[in-house]
Amino acid sequence: MLRSLLPKLASLLAVTAAAAIPSAHAADVLNIAATPVPHAEILEFVKPKLAKEGVDLRIKVFTDYVQPAVQVNEKRLDGNFFLHQPYLSEFKKSHKNDIEVPVAKVHVEPFAGYSRKHKSVADLPAGATVAIPNDPSNSGRALILLARQGLLKLRDMSNVSATRSDIVENPKKLKFRELEAAMLPRVLDQVDLALINTNYALEAKLNPVKDSLFIEDGNSPYANLLVAREDNKDSAAVRKLAGALNSPEVKQFIQEKYKGAVVPAF
Q: Is residue 14 pLDDT above 80, yes or no?
């Protein structure tokens, strides 16, 4: 009887031993915050590749710009993918626990101006209402883009944190509404012009290339970043994600899916 039980006992011991060390083969879990378009879409594209490399990428979708940065700062998430360097710099100035660092540049979303009331910049009337983002880095970006269209003049065109107090000439006497970036597509019918971040424009089914009155050129310094924390930026999982986001496959995906509305930055 004992002899007949030996094979079963050996099999049971093998299973028990294997169960005792699952962590050796378990996937590294990586929780990354992203806004829906295009960031979460790009992360979904690389997710299967990362799974094969032992990384369980969990995408946490946010519709605003504050919470993704806050939750990484609070170590509730491993990283985020939605912001550019000027925004990160402003965020670090206004928040404690300065632990977020860029890991990879991925793409540029050319900022653009949209109107449902006017066909060209020349058509904007005196006293036109212009909606711009209310966060410092993107409001400065909007003002610089308006200045490049000849609609106003700034004290310093290189100041990415420019505010309305930096406007030295406003020949059309434009009136400004500063709103949360996610709200801008929703007020497009209420204003003469709105300057909208491409991720929110795409969510609203606006094509930055076809639907805008004007758009940033390829020299934009606002490359969107994969950001991690100081304590995990060199981890294998974060490095694998950075490598996947800077791969030829992602470059092709961005070019084919967004057709110029999003441009690779690597």
A: no
Name the segment(s) of the chain with CATH classification 3.40.190.10. Answer: 27-109+222-264, 112-215
Q: What is the mean pLDDT of residues 155-173?
A: 95
Which distant-in-sequence residues (6+ apart) come within 8 Å of 84 by Cβ? 137, 221, 222, 223, 224, 225
pTM: 0.81
Q: Environment class of residue 19 by beta-carbon count within 10 Å: exposed (0-12), middle (13-18) or buried (19+)?
A: exposed
**With DSSP H G I counted as helix, E B as strand and the rest as coil, what are the percentages for the chain, rounded to 5?**
40, 25, 35
Q: Sign (positive/negative) of CA torsion 197, 202, 204, 209?
A: positive
Closest CA to 165 of 136, 133, 131: 136
pLDDT tens digits, 108-117: 999 999 999 9
Backbone φ, ψ for residue 154 (5° rounding): -105, 155
Cα-based distances in Å from 73 to 94, 127, 158, 168, 221: 12, 41, 28, 37, 24
Which CATH number describes the domain made up of 112-215? 3.40.190.10
User: Could you read off the pLDDT of 37-87 as tens digits, one per residue?
Assistant: 999 999 999 999 999 999 999 999 999 999 999 999 999 999 999 999 999
CA nearest to 218, candidates 105, 108, 85, 87: 108
114 close to 201: Cβ distance less than 8 angstroms: yes
- What is the CATH architecture assignment of 27-109+222-264? 3-Layer(aba) Sandwich (3.40)
Q: What is the mean pLDDT of the chain?
A: 90
